[in-house]
Automatic annotation (TrEMBL):
It comes from Albibacterium profundi. Signal peptide: none annotated. Transmembrane segments: none annotated. The keyword Isomerase does not apply. This is Response regulator transcription factor.
Length: 202
């Protein structure tokens, strides 16, 4: 049975995630809410997969947990995040995650992410060529909006910078996700950063 460790500082979220995964036949061997307990739990239980929130209680982030564990251990990894901060995502990519799960997520999205993570040992690069091809369909204006999204700007901030309405930005964002076949903004940003697609716009 695949063993999963959850690193999440919101107790209710962690318990909900744990109960759901166990109902689907997975063994949740440990739940930790900060750097120190995560390191101890990993050493004790040796999970096959870590579901890790990027932001945790205490001074250290979930990324720092993974950076430490990656020094001597191999495991599958899914980051859980509600944030699209550029530097955080760059740091996260350096730890070779299998996937990013964006809060708020559904049970089905959680299950699919876990199932896909167990199918691969390394980062999931399925359909990379298709996504790269899709990116080429974006206009310069749309790429500029993606670049501002990568910087962490909201629709309102993007609208102010480009002198267009927030509604127009929201329409562009939906069209960008549709054209590139990403399910959410974090997936789009991670892909753009990983493949250095926006350097001329930054």
């Amino acid at each position: 049975m695949e063993r999963i460790m959850i690193v999440e500082d919101e107790f209710i979220v962690a318990q909900s995630m744990s109960f759901f995964l166990e109902s689907k036949g997975y063994e949740v061997c440990a739940v930790a809410d900060r750097y120190e307990s995560a390191i101890r739990s990993f050493i004790s239980y040796k999970p096959d997969l870590i579901l890790c929130d990027i932001r945790l209680r205490g001074e250290k982030t979930g990324i720092q947990v993974i950076q430490e564990l990656r020094k001597n251990h191999a495991f599958r990894l899914i980051y859980v995040t509600a944030h699209g901060d550029e530097q955080l995502l760059k740091d996260a990519l350096g730890t070779h995650p299998n996937a990013f799960l964006l809060k708020p997520y559904t049970d089905q999205q959680l299950l699919v992410s876990v199932q896909m993570a167990f199918k691969t040992k390394e980062s999931n690069h399925t359909n990379v060529s298709e996504h790269l091809k899709d990116f080429q369909t974006l206009s310069k204006g749309e790429l500029r909006i993606v670049a501002l999204m990568v910087e962490g700007k909201s629709s309102t901030e993007i609208a102010d910078e480009l002198f267009i309405s927030k509604h127009t930005v929201d329409v562009h964002r939906k069209n960008i996700l549709r054209k590139t076949n990403f399910k959410n903004t974090v997936q789009l940003i991670v892909f753009a950063l990983e493949h250095r697609l926006l350097e001329e716009y930054q």
